[in-house]
Amino acid sequence: MREANDELAHLEVRDVGKVFSEAVSGDVPSGTDAFDYFAACITAQNGDFNKWDKAIGYSVRVPLGVCAGIGAWNYPMQIACWKSAPALAAGNAFILKPSEETPFVAHKVAELLQAAGLPDGLFQIIHGDRDIGAALCAHPGIAKISLTGGVETGRLIMAQSAQSLKKITLELGGKSPLLVFEDCDFDLAVQTALDANFYTGGEVCSNATRVFVQRSIANDFIAAMTARTEAMRVGDPMASDIQMGALISKRHLAKVLDYVKIGVDEGATITTGGNALKPQGFENGYFMQPTILTNCHDDMRVVREEIFGPVMSVLIFDDEDEAIRRANSTNFGLGAGVMTQDLARAHRVADALESGNVWVNSYNLLPPGLPFGGAKHSGFGRENSAYTLDAYSEIKSVYIQL
Amino acid sequence: MQICQSLIGGKPVKSNLPIIEKRYPATGEVIAHIEPASDAMLNEAVAIASQAQISWAKTDAFDRAKILHKPPI
């Protein structure tokens, strides 16, 4: 996979329309990392041992059998690897249903696994839409489903999996907050806010689409973000001077643009962006400007609902308690960010945020050793870290009378 | 036109269900036809997976790991 990194990144671009520079440095190596990490982890896994008077007990992890992954369309390489690597390491067979928007990269992963000596039948690909997804969930021969997708899909998968009592991991959506305090590193905070919104065209479940800025720095902060956003180039995903590629589909682009209109109707101001784009030579692609909405308030639909596009909502706060309360005022809980140079505040706020992941002075960094996943309606179960091996296995205890 | 077929038992398998068009988001051009798997194909994949998993689970963790992070040939 390391040697095929460029080819995998090309396929990821064909799948998603994101820029090559992101795919080649982010998504693809992060997928490969999962194989290194979980291969190492499984060799270090031990069982537990108990001793009583005249008896001993031990418990070991055993694989579940056949596990399935249902993928979203934003990170097809990462999703294929983050689910299959722990499943296979733990001794399961794995069936992947990639999103019907992104069929390509999984086939290269399969080819590389086959070349590495993985026996046939352990990594299989099933194509199709939600009909075959429902059949996977209902299938009595499949022990577990791991889904990356939206909240509504999560509810559906859970319901469809109930009859066969599947184990489930749900990696769902978010409306994550980034809290920018007046004592932050200003330039770092500006860039972090942009990266946390416009990476992969904003099509990232953990993106920090609610940017809370402390009032004393708000005007300067909005001006700096606006200037940098307007310098971003949108267009050919393969061009090296492009920072944002296309959205996934015509329908999704229309949905995101509709959200911008809803925001304006609710009273938000478009500080920059807001429109579809037709870059030269790519007039029929699904492009839009990175967009910043200001004059937002917490009750707006654009502030409450996941848009899954390059649309940032800026919210102003006065003090820390208010920022925490408003940040937590959502059913989602996937990511959260804190920009501050005050060490005590960083820990205090990280502790108070209701979220599966909190980043301090950074955002969306996902090393394989750190558990990743959601609180509240953003899902349950974790990916990455040794905990994920537990999600692809169960404990078997043996009691021995002596 | 690239055809994307389900990979079952290490081989692409043809389906007769109506195809799904895959477009390249940057141009809107149809670049692949996806053949959705039928329920029978899924049943076959699960049967093959169940069979393959038996010996995989018996393979020592260390030997599984050697395959999972071995570089491509």
What can you tell me about this protein's structure?
The complex is a heterodimer of chains A (402) and B (73). Chain A has two domains: 5-172 and 374-401, Aldehyde Dehydrogenase, Chain A, domain 1 (3-Layer(aba) Sandwich), CATH 3.40.605; 177-360, Aldehyde Dehydrogenase, Chain A, domain 2, CATH 3.40.309. Helix content of chain A is 38%, strand content 20%. Chain A has 402 residues and is α/β, with parallel strands linked by helices. In chain A, the strands form four sheets. A seven-stranded mixed sheet of chain A has the order 10-13-14-9-8-15-16, sandwiched between helices. The relative contact order of chain B is 0.17. Helices cover 38% and strands 25% of the residues of chain B. Chain B has one domain (2-68).
Tell me the layout of helices and strands:
The complex is a heterodimer of chains A (402) and B (73).
Chain A (H helix, E strand, L loop, with lengths): L4 H12 L3 H24 L4 E5 L2 E9 L2 E5 L5 H14 L3 E5 L7 H11 L7 E3 L4 H9 L5 E5 L2 H12 L4 E5 L5 E4 L5 H13 L11 E5 H16 L19 H16 L3 E4 L3 E2 L9 E2 L2 E4 L6 H4 L6 E7 L2 H8 L9 E3 L3 H10 L6 E2 L18 E2 L6 H5 L1 E9 L1
Parallel strand pairs in A: 3-4, 3-6, 4-5, 6-7, 8-9, 8-15, 9-14, 13-14, 15-16
Antiparallel strand pairs in A: 1-2, 2-18, 7-17, 10-13, 11-12
Helix pairs in contact in A: 1-2, 2-3, 5-6, 7-8
Chain B lengths: L1 E3 L1 E3 L2 E3 L6 E4 L6 E5 L4 H20 L2 H8 L5
Parallel strand pairs in B: 1-5
Antiparallel strand pairs in B: 2-3, 4-5
